[in-house]
Design goal:
The complex is a heterodimer of chains A (102) and B (342). Chain A has 102 residues and is mainly α. Chain A is 52% helix and 0% strand. Chain A has a single domain, classed as Non-ribosomal Peptide Synthetase Peptidyl Carrier Protein, Chain A, CATH 1.10.1200. Chain A has 3 helices and no strands. The longest helix of chain A has 25 residues. Chain B is 18% helix and 31% strand. In chain B, the strands form 3 sheets. Chain B has a 6-stranded mixed sheet. Chain B has a 6-stranded antiparallel β-barrel with strand order 12-15-14-13-16-17. In chain B, a hairpin with a 3-residue loop joins β16 and β17. Classes of the chains: A mainly alpha (102), B alpha+beta (342). At the A-B interface, α1 and α3 of A face β12 of B.
Chain lengths: 102, 342
């Protein structure tokens, strides 16, 4: 059980790292990766993204992780923090029948 | 059963006499600007009407206050929640360039509105333009200032009102509030919402011996400017943080100070606890969501780490251009809490 949890944590850290990379390289967030805390808000006063960035963010995540988010899947609740984005990516990667199952 | 005011914050509008805020005004030209510069944010340029959400730190980079600052012509208005320190005295000790600091505690009072329809009630008082006011913006009201801010995850407005007009404004809000089923929400209710929605509480987790790194508040700090605590923060950045604030959902009540264990080892401490949710400072190796198996002592209460925010706030689903409190039953709100044992 402990070993399974360690693997899950390692995988999540990899996804979080990828999300940070999309934010920095794709959306121009001017922060070092370790300054982007997992639960920092993305929009408004947080990392300063806006509604236009949201579209680029989704496209960037799809390219980075080779996934496709079904229409309407990336609703506002999942676009709140790096952590919620990581949850969304992992859910789609783990979906047995593609994104519609997520 | 929900405490008084909770339903209103989550589903309608709640009003709070927000005595937990300290307000002060900085004036005096360049001195006021220089004094504001002890806030931690990187982007300090403020237009009229814009609100900045920032921090005051002490020399060791521990938070003193969670701060909103807005520009009012040539002066700045600071509206802050603190961990008990006398912020006015602190500001005066650190004043720069001959800035003048006016404590607004004697002359002004803060009234807060929170809830998915707070915009509609305030709009009844000040006009429909409030609907288009973006988050972290302000406007003049009755000789004071209204900030669109809030820390409940719902629409929120903090009204900093001159005392001679505050009663009249509050009376109008309460009168118009009848058709919104307006309720009073005490600070405890707002703090529960802060917990559920991952808003920093300087009186709880902020009162510990921690810095923005452990608190996941690095987004509110700059690395390119000097401010109180900046040198300490920079020195700490040379090493990995030991712990990180993590959201737990315990199966029974837990309390601040309780030990958090995982597989028999002590890995952290509860920093803030509310109804069905807690924040813990957890060793970074285990400061991740979706770990089952935490146990909070005494009592070894099982707890699971989760990704905040926990609430799927109604405000995320309310469009002021289309909706109103009167027709709220037509809005297809999803469950407020999804996938959690609540």
């Amino acid at each position: 059980m402990r070993e399974d949890m360690m693997k899950a944590i390692a995988r999540r850290e990899e996804v979080v790292s990828g999300v940070r990379q999309v934010l920095i390289e794709g959306l121009g967030v001017r922060r070092a990766p370790d300054e982007i805390d997992p639960d920092a808000p993305l929009f408004g006063t947080g990392l300063g993204l806006d509604s236009v960035d949201a579209v680029e963010l989704v496209v960037g995540l799809e390219a980075k992780f080779g996934v496709h988010f079904a229409q309407g899947y990336m609703h506002r609740r999942l676009l709140r923090t790096v952590g919620t984005l990581a949850d969304a990516v992992i859910a789609v990667l783990d979906a047995p029948r593609g994104p519609d199952a997520a | 059963m929900q405490p008084d005011g909770m339903r209103a914050v989550r589903e309608g509008v709640a009003i709070t006499r927000a005595d937990h805020f300290t307000a002060l005004r900085l004036s005096g030209g360049d001195g006021a600007w220089e004094t504001v510069s002890w806030l931690t944010s990187g982007e300090l340029f403020l237009r009229d009407g814009q609100v900045l959400h920032s921090l005051w730190l002490d020399e060791r980079a521990r938070p003193l206050a969670d701060v909103y600052v807005l520009r009012d012509d040539e002066s700045f208005v600071v509206v802050a929640e603190s961990r008990g320190k006398d912020l006015v005295a602190h500001a005066r000790q650190n004043v720069r360039g001959g800035a003048v600091i006016d404590a607004l505690g004697e002359t002004h009072r803060v009234v807060s509105l929170n809830g998915p329809f707070a915009w509609e009630l305030l709009g009844d008082i000040v006009g429909p333009d409030v609907v288009s006011l973006p988050y972290m913006a302000s406007f003049r009201i009755e000789g004071g200032w209204a900030l669109r801010a809030g820390k409940t995850g719902e629409y929120g407005y903090d009204l900093v009102l001159p005392v001679d007009r505050a009663d009249a404004v509050e009376a109008r809000l309460r009168e118009r509030g009848v058709r919104f089923d307006l309720e009073d929400a005490p600070l405890a209710v707002l703090e529960q919402c802060m917990l559920e929605n991952w808003f920093f509480n300087v009186r709880r987790e902020g009162s510990l011996d921690v810095t923005p790194r452990e608190l996941q508040l690095q987004w509110r700090t700059s690395r390119g400017r000097e401010y109180l605590g900046a040198a300490s923060l920079e020195a700490q950045r040379k090493e990995d943080p030991r712990q990180r604030l993590t959201t737990l959902v315990p199966s029974a009540p837990v309390h601040a100070g309780d030990e958090v264990r995982l597989w028999g080892e002590a890995v952290g401490t509860i920093a803030n606890a509310g109804d069905g949710v807690a924040l813990a400072l957890v060793d970074v190796a285990w400061a991740h969501p979706w770990i089952d198996g935490f146990a909070v002592s005494p009592g070894r209460t099982p707890a699971r780490s989760v990704t905040p925010p926990l609430a799927n706030n109604h405000s995320l689903h309310v469009n002021p251009q289309q909706h109103s409190y009167a027709t709220r039953d037509e809005i297809p709100f999803p469950p407020l809490f999804t996938g959690l044992a609540r």
